[in-house]
Amino acid sequence: FMRRYSCWPKIWRLHQIYPLYKRKTAFHAGNYRGIHLTTILSKTAERIIGCPLIPFLQNKCFGIHQWAFTPRLSARDLVTALMMSWILAVCCGSKVAAYLSDITGAFDRVARDYMLAKLYNAGIGTKYLNFLASYLQPRKAVVVVEGVSSEEIEIANQVVQGTVLGPP
What we know:
This protein is α+β, with helices and mostly antiparallel strands. The chain has helices at 2-5, 40-60, 75-91, 112-122, 126-135; strands at residues 14-21, 32-37, 139-145, 148-149, 153-155. The protein is globular, with a radius of gyration of 19 Å.
């Protein structure tokens, strides 16, 4: 079905979101990250689709400065590379400036149309592009806390935590 029509089944766009505690006080809703529980079938389909797609993204789209979710690269490697480049710059007489910012949640959003346009320009195939357009359509979700579900909400333009393709 998905191969022929390059679409993500509507039933797989229904999520149960469970709050996962992140930090600070447990009594503030903003201190939780929503984890989406998705079906095994959808995760299996994502893995099959991701096998050729993720290497293409790594080679053609991410660029050399992409460290997050890149095999064999960690935050520790990035800090080491940055420190070495700063030491080299100082030894060569250059000045080094750093800007530190709170990027909490900065990678939780996706501008769907912008991302699809970039993938098209990178040469991704039509079937994958159609699939990703369907995969990134708005979804419906309920938040579940202690077995009680909220009213259904729409989620759009975000990285779906708990999916296989969400991080890349």
